[in-house]
Design a protein that fits this description.
about 90 residues, alpha+beta, SH3 type barrels, 6-stranded antiparallel sheet, 1 helix, globular
């Protein structure tokens, strides 16, 4: 579990109050005063498979602090690769 996040870090967001659909994956865009803007890239379905969000999803970027959910670094190579591809195709910095 991470207590501090870094800009451009890939994070796994585990929301304890969301039941089975409580795992999302995103990238940290900005940090200000302990609040992190995180762009959601995908989620884990009930079979444990990573699914990318389409770009027209509402609230793709949300603000969190480290008490809102459990944050872990994304270590799965397949998920990181899919996140990289999604960012290259859909997000221009």
């Amino acid at each position: 579990m991470l207590n501090k996040l870094a800009k451009n870090q890939y994070v796994k967001i585990i929301k304890s109050n969301a039941g089975n659909n409580g795992i999302e994956y995103g990238v940290v865009l900005e940090e200000e005063d302990g609040k992190y803007d995180i762009m959601s890239i995908g989620f884990e379905n009930k079979n444990g498979k990573f699914i990318e969000y389409p770009t027209n999803v509402e609230n793709l970027v949300q603000s969190y602090n480290t008490q809102d959910a459990q944050f872990d670094e994304v270590k799965e190579n397949e998920v990181r690769r899919k996140m990289n591809i999604w960012l290259e195709n859909n997000y221009k910095r």
